[in-house]
Design brief:
alpha+beta; Alpha-D-Glucose-1,6-Bisphosphate, Chain A, domain 4; 157 residues
């Protein structure tokens, strides 16, 4: 098979785009919400150089099996706060992703109305047989992001 499928996921958040962008890029915030339910980010692994050419890294760990670890090692090829970042990434530990074939992750942050933010994730290429699963995983992570943003705002809005 050839990795040739791009996954696109969108979600609107009731939070200003600067806040949503920070939640994605600041290591201390990213560690609070990344990972599907049943996973967590190993806080001590999170690093990020927030600039074009900057490296970022984190490891997600399965809660009920800490030996299952998925690492993301990326370089920002575009970084325009608070509008968009693009990262070329190598993923290790995920049986559906070849660690020798880099993925591209593009995350766009669009202001909607007065204070909402539309997040659009575009990632790939994936093998066709695992692409839908990764799209569903992004949906679950975005639910966690919404919960994090609500908590970070003190339950307001």
């Amino acid at each position: 098979m050839t990795a040739n499928v791009i996954v696109t996921v969108e979600r609107e958040f009731d939070a200003p785009r600067e806040q949503v962008f920070r939640a994605w890029t600041r290591p201390d915030e990213l560690a609070q919400w990344r990972g599907s339910p049943g996973w967590h980010v190993e806080t001590e692994t999170v690093r990020g150089e927030l600039q074009n050419g900057g490296r970022h890294y984190h490891v997600k760990v399965r809660d009920n099996d800490p030996s299952t670890r998925v690492g993301t090692d990326g370089v920002y090829t575009e970084y325009f706060e608070p509008d968009v970042f693009v990262s070329r990434e190598r993923i290790t530990g995920d049986p559906g992703i070849d660690p020798d074939v880099p993925l591209e992750l593009r995350v766009e942050f669009t202001r909607m109305g007065r204070n909402n933010t539309l997040v659009r994730i575009i990632q790939g290429p994936y093998e066709p047989d695992v692409a839908s699963w990764h799209g569903e995983a992004w949906e679950r992570e975005l639910t966690r992001l919404a919960e994090y943003l609500t908590t970070a705002q003190g339950g307001a809005r």
